[in-house]
Specification:
This protein is an alpha/beta fold and 345 residues long. The protein is globular, with a radius of gyration of 21 Å. Strands 1, 2, 3, 4, 5, 6, 7, 8 and 9 form a 9-stranded mixed β-sheet that branches. It is built from 13 helices and 9 strands.
């Protein structure tokens, strides 16, 4: 339905074992100043009380629709929500995050700007905050622009490769017709980044708002958010996406070559600094491929303008003496942690 002459917005929330924070997250959606919403809670085979909570919430708010499926990951849950969305626009919220009361009203305002300019295949993004489980502020991952800014598709793709752009769909609003043509790739992490890259061919661009409306809550044990001292499949999957950019996108958009190389090198640096030392051997095919890439691009890494001197130093050491470098790195890191803990007592 349409009310106040404003389009219906469908908000898709993938839910998996979120009983401890689901109600708080949904409440921030229900309290939006834009009331013309439908909230699609997609339970992805939760093993806790999440599905029961979803159904209870639906009884209290007619705008909430509940879907249940076997566990298949956040991407498959989002895709189910997209297929069932009735709104003119689609947005996404993770089940453990929070949004400001005016977020969707602000995003819809940005969408109107795009439509008034005759654009159809666009994305509107709002700024975000990062906090830990205690609500304490963390460093910005992405800094919003000083004023609302339109970014052409290729420039936006380059910003993602240089980590100056936001690769999250949770801060975004997308026309439903455009979103339904581009479902999330399933069975792999980093699906937001990959989908955005695949959408570049048809995207008019991204309208970035200067306001902050989304709060990312970094929780221990998150599958999609890298944790210090742990090794997640994210470190592998993002390299697969980096290869897609270098092998497929650069062929069509040569202007992305330099930033794509930087992205490929940086993500392999991240992998090499986190893969368990015991897995750094010839029996690990993925590891050997990473080392081969670094050796092939050894001289290019030295001249890469978008890598810091520290990045280059680590890459050189990890290319020439990977296991030794890692052992020394973790020994120094361990001493630093012990020193910080002693200072905090």
């Amino acid at each position: 339905m349409e009310t106040d002459n404003r389009p219906l917005v469908s908000v898709v929330v993938p839910v998996y074992n979120a009983e401890g924070f689901l109600k708080d997250t949904v409440q921030t959606i229900e309290e939006q100043t834009l009331k013309n919403l439908e909230i699609l809670l997609v339970d992805d085979g939760s093993k806790d009380e999440s599905l029961r909570i979803c159904r209870e919430l639906a009884k209290e708010d007619v705008r909430i629709k509940v879907f249940h499926k076997e566990n298949g990951g956040a991407a498959s849950a989002r895709n189910l929500g997209i297929r069932n969305a009735r709104g003119s626009f689609i947005g996404f919220v993770d089940s453990d995050d929070r949004i400001e009361k005016t977020m969707y009203e602000d995003l819809l305002r940005g969408a109107k700007v795009m439509e008034d300019e005759g654009k159809e295949n666009f994305i509107v993004q709002i700024g975000r905050r990062e906090v830990n489980e205690k609500g304490e502020a963390l460093p910005d991952v992405v800094i919003p622009p000083v004023e609302d800014t339109f970014v052409p598709a290729i420039s936006f793709a380059e910003s993602l490769l240089l980590y100056t752009g936001d690769a999250s769909f949770c801060t975004s609003l997308v026309p439903a017709g455009y979103m339904k043509q581009h479902l999330f790739p399933e069975g792999i992490t980093g699906e937001d980044f990959r989908l955005l890259m695949e959408m570049v061919d048809t995207m008019d661009g991204v309208y970035r708002l200067s306001a902050r409306g989304y709060t990312v809550v970094h929780r221990k044990g998150s599958v999609t958010r890298r944790q210090a001292g742990s090794f997640s499949r994210v470190y592998r999957d993002i390299i697969v996406h980096a290869d897609f950019v270098e092998q497929e996108m650069v062929r069509k958009y040569p202007e992305l070559q330099a930033s794509a190389l930087r992205f490929g090198l940086y993500e392999r640096l991240d992998y090499m600094l986190h893969v368990p030392v015991k897995d750094m051997n010839r029996g690990n095919a993925f590891y050997t491929q990473v080392v081969a890439y670094l050796r092939k691009n050894f001289f290019k890494m030295l001249s890469c303008e978008n890598l810091t001197a520290k990045n280059k130093g680590y890459l050189v050491l990890l290319t020439l003496h990977p296991r030794l470098t890692r052992k020394v790195h973790w020994a120094l890191r361990g001493k630093k942690i012990l020193k910080e803990e002693a200072a905090s007592r």
